[in-house]
Amino acid sequence: MPKDVLTFKRGGVHPEDRKFLSNKKAIEFLPVPKEVVVSLSQHLGAPAKALKAKGDSVVRGEKIGTASSFISAEVHSPVTGTIKAIQKVTLANSVKCDAYVIETDPTAEEVKWDDIDWRTKSKEELLNTIKDLGIVGMGGATFPAHVKFSITKGKVAEYLVINGVECEPYLTSDHRTMLERAEGAIEGVMIIAKVIEAKKIIVGIEKNKMDAVKHLRDVIKAKGYPITVQPLKMKYPQGDEKQLLKATTGREIPSGKLPLDIGAVVSNIGTCFAVYEACTKNKPLMERVVCVTGECIKEPKNIVAPIGTKIGELIDFCGGFKEEPDKIVSGGPMMGFAFYDLDTPIQKGTSGVISIKVENEAPQTSCISCGKCVSACPIGLMPTMMYKNISNGRYDVALNKYSLMDCKECGSCAFVCPAHIPLVHTFKYGKKMARRKK
Length: 438
Ligand code: SF4
Ligand code: SF4
Prior knowledge:
This protein is α/β, with parallel strands linked by helices. Helix content is 27%, strand content 19%. The chain has helices at 123-132, 145-148, 173-180, 182-196, 210-223, 241-249, 269-281, 311-317, 372-376, 383-391, 395-400, 412-416, 423-437; strands at 28-29, 35-39, 49-50, 57-58, 63-66, 75-76, 81-90, 96-104, 159-163, 200-206, 227-232, 264-268, 287-293, 301-306, 327-330, 337-339, 352-356. Helix 10 crosses helix 13.
């Protein structure tokens, strides 16, 4: 039997979770928007290749973009309508890419989905479906799922670890998925387990979501599936693959290696639900649960919205702003991206949008060598030394001596820094410069 509550040992921080704003709000469906902006770069890796042209009609669920390389993914239309334009858009993470502007047809008939028993399908057929229907990691990383679930020759996925941690403050989309879509999500877990031939299956959930722990355990028991639900301590970044695997399996991913190198595959719980819909309904990934929250939102909500919905429409659906936000962030406050244009569309990896006030933002001062950042780093890096070397243009020292590339950009060091130094921003810049120099 697993211990009551587990966690990782090294580093980590305890930001206020602020999940009470939306964690009791049942998932609602956004009415179909008049227009969606669907980018061809919905995933990590190369953008998809456009399959449609301006003026073409599309049906909800139809493929409109196809993977252009090994690490890439298919893209489907979330609405029935007409392609008004293909144009450049700027995403919340500042990436510029091509996107379809699709005008929806309000008279379109609802698309009917299939009813398939996934157990009748081989693991190869299931993997093909996951690829064909554009499933990517929905926790934010957007890594193409078919690539992650293709087990390289000579490797074994002993563990399948499902990420239901949702350790970023504010966000509650995975929490509500586990409460309201558990039946489907658990079928998705078993589909992935079949594809990768996992021997042990663990779902990790932080203990601020004990209702989800109980509910998943009830669903799993009723289905008779061999899945363990493991409560985890509340500690950021518990949801990072490295910390999640350490807590649930006791195994540590070495520097520069992947979960599969230690016999594990990690998948987000929302991705499991998308896998279930793909493999049992033939439904592509073209909508998702987005948590729209923060102190500046009138009525925070968890909303199922088509991919490509403009963020401003989601905010309007929540009654708008109750006060002017200082910051709007796509994703969580620790790792998300601040953006300003409310016409920015949601992507397959958009788990939330938060609108917040930034109270008394203190000015940056010099490093006082307090070492707090070193204690907070879950990877065991020396953020202060990486910062000093990058600031002095010694990118190779930050890279080779202080393992800059192992930095997960989790923000724990910046969170505790009394000098308010933009450490993560510096590390992102340092990585870019180090790559350029190489
Ligand atoms: S926490 Fe900030 S001030 Fe302290 S050592 Fe690290 S960078 Fe310097
Ligand atoms: S951002 Fe990088 S250096 Fe800072 S705590 Fe996270 S992993 Fe460590």
